[in-house]
Amino acid sequence: RIAVLEESGNMPLAYISAKLHGLEEHAERIQVAIETNGGSVEGLMDKVDTSTKKAGCLLQPPTPIVRSDNWPTLPIEKHTLEDLEAAAAEAEHSGEEEYHDAIPAHAAPEPSATAWGGDDLDEGDMGGFGDDDLDLGGDGGWDDDLDLGDDFGDKHDAAAPPDEMDGIQNVSDDATFDMPPAGRAPAGCWVANSSHAADHVAAGGASSALQLLNRQIAASEFSVLKDTMIGCYLGSTMSLPGVPGSGSMNIPLLRNDAGGHPGSDSLPRTSLKISNLVAGIRSGYRFFQGGKFNDSKNSFTDVLKKIPLVITENRNEANEVKEMLEICREYITAIRIKGAMSGCASDPVRSTELSAYFTHCNLQPIHLLLALRSAMGTAFKHKNFILAASFARRLLELPDMASERNADLRVKVCAFNKMDQPFFVI
After folding, report:
1. pLDDT at position 404, please?
2. What's the rounded Cα separation, in Å, for the pair 237 and 246?
3. For the segment 121-179, what is each residue's pLDDT rounded down to a tens digit?
């Protein structure tokens, strides 16, 4: 760090760094350089806060948790050329010692009659060599191809130095280096392995995800799904900070890695689960029962936006999602009818008609009881006693009417059915 600061011309910072870390020799050298250029080091250390132990501490990279020798490289077998280069390097270190050690001077073979003959070159032993010095014919003479025989090969071949280039011509075409195939990116695997819109959104393939939604559920207005899609995309990866000065690493989160990394068959982990839909349904129920119809509608609408990007694990979960879709549709329809009833309160015919429609929505029994009670009061207020009596009979058929909390309402409804007289519902 001091060297970098010096090379960049920041001599005061280099002096401060040297003093903080106890490098007095470097500090003196830098001080001389500063004073030579007409500067001064007085007051430089006053700018550094040394009141705490962490002041001016040396930043070190974190110790790696997992240690490995060849990570993240791949093990690759050496090809023939690399083996030959290694052998050549070993031969260079040994030099000519191998040649001398192969055949020591005291172990040199003695000349014999089977080699070049005796020292006196006896003409009788040479077989016709005395008659004519250049006579190449006759028995026992020289062959035309200068065949040295077996006696010349073994002893002198052992003393020959090793040929470093021997075997180069024997390298076959299939011994070349093969680059290991590059792995596919996780996003590419997700798009290739799944036809669900949520997996395509998690991989960043927004266009393919919109096409799937259009073909599968006939979706055409995608602006309402923007927030859900962004959450699905951000929830499929995790950002892991690296060493100081480096960027963060994005690590994909997989949902099928329970038994190990799936490799090219990987699928992303999505942030939306069935539990999120259940929580939204319960919130809508609570708002509906409390009379907060706008909040209830918003809760059920939010569940509808999440359903297309929820991935189910089995058929039972798929059936639950279909049931939640039906619930959201019925409750949103009921809330819209309730809003229309408030808008036409001055029209008794339309108001009574909408109250009857309101009771035919597929609601929970506790909520249907509230709808029938409201419709019965509306019909009675508009003096439509026959319709009010039909609502009363439907009320008596509900299982919740047998509870103690609805005892007063049950008595009033029964009295109205027997007497067919007007009554007030509180």
Report:
1. 53
2. 19
3. 444 444 444 444 444 444 444 444 444 445 444 544 455 566 555 554 554 555 566 77
CB 208 within 8 A of CB 177: no
* 239, β-bridge pairs: 250
Sequence length of the chain is: 426
- Tens of pLDDT along 270-285? 889 999 999 999 999 9
Residue 308: both structure tokens together: 């297309």
Q: What is the largest CA-CA distance in the chain?
A: 162
> Which string of DSSP letters, residue by residue, matches 37-73?
TT---TTSGGGS--SSTTTTPPP-PPPPSS--SSTTS
Q: Is 204 left (phi over 0), alpha (psi -120 to 50) or beta?
A: left
Residue pair 87/164 in contact (Cβ under 8 Å)? The answer is yes
- Rounded Cα distance between 177 and 189, Å, is 28
Handedness of CA 412, 417, 423, 424 (dihedral sign): positive
Dihedral sign for Cα atoms in the order 76, 80, 82, 88 = positive
Phi, psi of 251 (to 5 degrees): -110, 125
What is the radius of gyration, based on Cα positions, of the chain?
Answer: 48
Given CA atoms 385, 388, 390, 393 in this order, what sign does their dihedral have?
negative
CA distance 261 to 313: 19
Q: Name the token pair of 400.
A: 């919740």
Alpha carbon separation from 306 to 193, 201, 242, 299, 303 (Å, rounded): 22, 13, 34, 11, 5
C-beta separation of 35 from 54 below 8 A: no
420: left (phi over 0), alpha (psi -120 to 50) or beta: left
Torsion, Cα of 3, 4, 5, 6 (10° steps): 50
Q: Is 104 left (phi over 0), alpha (psi -120 to 50) or beta?
A: beta
- Mention every residue, 6+ apart, whose C-beta is less than 8 A from residue 317: 274
What distances in angstroms separate CA 137 from CA 67, 130, 289, one per listed residue? 78, 13, 128
Residue type, 267: L
For the chain (426 residues), the mean pLDDT of every run of 10, in chain order, is 84 83 85 84 74 65 68 61 67 55 47 44 45 47 46 50 56 60 85 92 92 92 91 90 82 88 88 92 94 93 94 92 95 93 88 91 90 86 83 79 58 54 45
